[in-house]
Amino acid sequence: MSQKITIDPITRVEGHGKVTIHLDDEGNVVRSRLHIVEFRGFERFVQGRPYWEAPVLVQRLCGICPVSHHLAAAKALDVIVGAGTGHGLSHTAEKVRRLMHYAQIFQSHALHFFHLASPDLLFGIDADPKIRNIVGVARANKDLAIQGVMMRKFGQELIQATAGKKIHGTGAIPGGVNKNLSEEERDKFTKGESPMNPEAMIAWAQSAIDFFKGYYKKNKKFIDTFSVFPSNHLSLVGKDGALDFYHGAIRAIDNEGVVILHDVNYQEYFNYIHEEVRSWSYMKFPYIAEIGENGGWYRVGPLARLNTCNFIPSPLAQTEFEIYKALTNGKPNNMCMHTHYARLIELLHAAEVIRDLLNDSDLQGNELVRTGEKRHEGVGVIEAPRGTLFHHYRINDNDQIAMANLIVSTTHNNEPMNRAVNQVAKSMMTGKKEITEPMMNAIEVAIRAYDPCLSCATHAYGQMPLEISLYDAREKLIDQKKKE
Amino acid sequence: MTNNVIKFLIDGKEYLAKNGTFIIDVARESGIFIPTLCNIPGIKPRGSCRMCTVSVNGRYMSACTTPISEGMDVRTNTPDLIDLRKAILEIMFVEGNHICPVCEKSGNCDLQALGYRYQILVSRFPHQYPKRTIDALNPHLIKDHNRCILCKRCIRTIKDEQGRGFFAFHKRGHKIEISIDHSMNELLTEEVAQRAVDICPTGALLKKESGYQTPISNRKYERTPIGSDIEHAHQ
After folding, report:
1. Which of A5, A7, A256, A478 is the most buried (most CB within 10 A)?
2. Looking at the predicted structure, is the pLDDT value of residue A43 above 60?
3. What CATH number should be reported for the domain holding residue B129?
């Protein structure tokens, strides 16, 4: 008898989603889907609001990486107020924003690795869920847990110093920023007591990479084979193809490394990226227009970024990047679990950039805002922790928002996550009559590698629990497991 | 003591003031904070918001429109008065659409500051979620009806040299709203717009293209919580 399995809610991810798996009469997996079940509608209710409200208003769709939305919206409005894109701002404004953003990447990556992913790595994906959580990590490896908490704190305090608040600040305004970083604020970090200074953060980020390498050595087969499938990859790249989280051009490559979008201007993203709507999910499915819906899907995020960029412009992270790239002989990496590895290299890079920025006297400059000839439309793109984030606004003659379109990182990863779920379901559940907890967690591990933020992706509201249901061929519910 | 000066009590303590002075002004000068929203020092009071309600010889009166008189016994801070003021604030919050987390007046807003002072966490009244519009036709000013508490401060103070007002009431009953006289748009300069924004106790009047200029922690009521300037000046 055929069955349908539902995992609802998915745990240790940001937001709320569920997975359904359909089995045929022989118990073979015939179809699996990651459903995003929330709806919020930010793109609609910002219409009519004054355009300069967008960076403060739209960031409210997320409490995890609001800085990304804050800055993507501000970048779009830079275009509208005539300040241009990226480097059109004053040095002070651009660097304050960069500091805010790299602090955000740093704290978000630390949160994901130490709080969400490390329980799977420390205890194994089939360990007892009673210990496979952050409390279990704290008991088993106190230093690791403390490092996670303190790294997140460091990033959050930098965000507060630049944006005014740790969550949902107002630092970026159209054309620049509303404050610089005073010497007193800077010294709090550069002269902070250990471990609250950049050097300690760099050392901890390096030790997190070493921890992962140690785990990789012992679990190479799992890391190299779990949820592996070829895909295209897309991200912003900076000057000369450098890894750049704040600004750049859009580059996409295929699974062999052939460039399919060659550093195009993101102001015209809509010529290159289209979105497909499917009836069973509130999350859209973006694809590269020239290739089409079937083959044009792609991954974004740490794995994609380290595939598309040519190098990392900071010495320690570049050294780790070269070791990482050697694993695939310089070719694109399509191994899902290597996303954790890539994320940690980015964590190290963010720490190095933070150190360099804090030592840059431009942060104490007084030219905060630049404006020029006003326009009615602007696009802002940024590399958020989870991947490429697009904000697109059009305004009317009275300065009110007439149109908003947001394509968030997790939305780009919609198809890859669905493929990952399908692949893991096929390998773990084919022929099985009962859903076990390790099977459910394996599905979640595949999703979790993308560090999805489902609230952002649907611009949605709620917690992120996961539910798995098992249905037969006649759509009758046979088994259901829920995690609250 | 001249005939013009009289004796009275505020919160049980004896004070002297010129006969006819409004209670609100005497209290302010004596270091006693009575909350207001519609009152503006120097402009004829209207007593419309009722935030300044005090007990005068046992009767509730608005402190901004009641002159002091000989032997008057004024109570400004009884539990019943505090609850009444909280109720008035709660009504204002539920009657409009006040989304403080994204409002650019946050930190500079009298209504929000009083909400904090009176520790309003939830309202005893149901939210009305009225459907209101935004008037953005003026080149310097936006009027967001979602946040307007109808205090008439803008109507009473923002006028041209001939005394003609830029703002007026429009419609009636629960549909009443402040409107901008767009036939006077040419006279409504950037400077006039700034005065209107400054006089508005909420975020209902916004100057175009200049939001969120003051960093968080440096905004008016973050530096000086509402009323603390009056209270601290006499300590």
Report:
1. A7
2. yes
3. 3.30.70.20
Name every chain A residue with its beta carbon within 8 A of the beta carbon of B210.
52
- Give the residue-averaged pLDDT of A180-191: 96
Residue B144 and residue B66 share a domain: no
In angstroms, the CA A472 to CA A465 distance is 24
A407: number of Cβ within 10 Å? 22
- Is A344 strand, coil or helix? helix
B89 & B203 share domain: yes
In this complex, the residue of A53, A81, A178 whose CB is nearest that of residue B213 is A178
At residue A80, the pLDDT reads: 97
Chain centroid to Cα B92, Å, comes to: 12
Q: Are strands B73-75 and B5-10 parallel, antiparallel or unpaired?
A: parallel
pLDDT at A267 over 90: yes
Phi then psi for A226, rounded to 5 degrees?
-75, 120
Distance between start and end Cα atoms, chain A: 29
Model pLDDT, residue A14: 60
Q: Does B42 reside within a domain?
A: yes
How far is the alpha carbon of A337 from chain B, nearest alpha carbon, in Å?
38
Vertex A346: Cα angle to A308 and A287 (nearest 5): 40
d(CA B178, CA B168): 6
Query: A444: burial class by Cβ within 10 Å (0-12, 13-18, 19+)?
Result: buried
The total number of structural domains that make up chain B: 2
pTM recorded for the entire structure = 0.91
A171 to chain B, any CB pair closer than 8 A? The answer is yes
Q: What does the DSSP assignment read for B77-116?
A: --HHHHHHHHHHHHHHHHHTT--GGG-TTTTT-HHHHHHH
> Both tokens of residue B68?
């002091």
**Among A165, A174, A398, beta carbon nearest to B136:** A398
B102 is in which domain, residue-wise?
Answer: 85-208
B29: phi then psi, degrees, rounded to nearest 5: -70, -20
For residue A444, is pLDDT > 60? yes
Distance between CA B83 and CA B125 in Å, rounded? 13
Residues B101 and B203 in one domain: yes
The total of other beta-carbon atoms located within 10 Å of residue A315's CB is 10
pLDDT value at residue A421: 85
Average pLDDT of the residues in B76-101: 96
Distance from the first to the final alpha carbon of chain B: 26
Q: Is the dihedral of CA A321, A323, A327, A330 positive or negative?
A: positive
> Is the distance from CB of A468 to CB of A19 less than 8 angstroms?
yes
* Cβ pairs A/B, distance under 8 A: 54
Q: Any CB–CB contact under 8 A between A366 and chain B? A: no
B-chain CB neighbours of A173 within 8 Å are 211-213
What is the pLDDT at residue A11? Answer: 63
The confidence score (pLDDT) of residue A453 equals 67
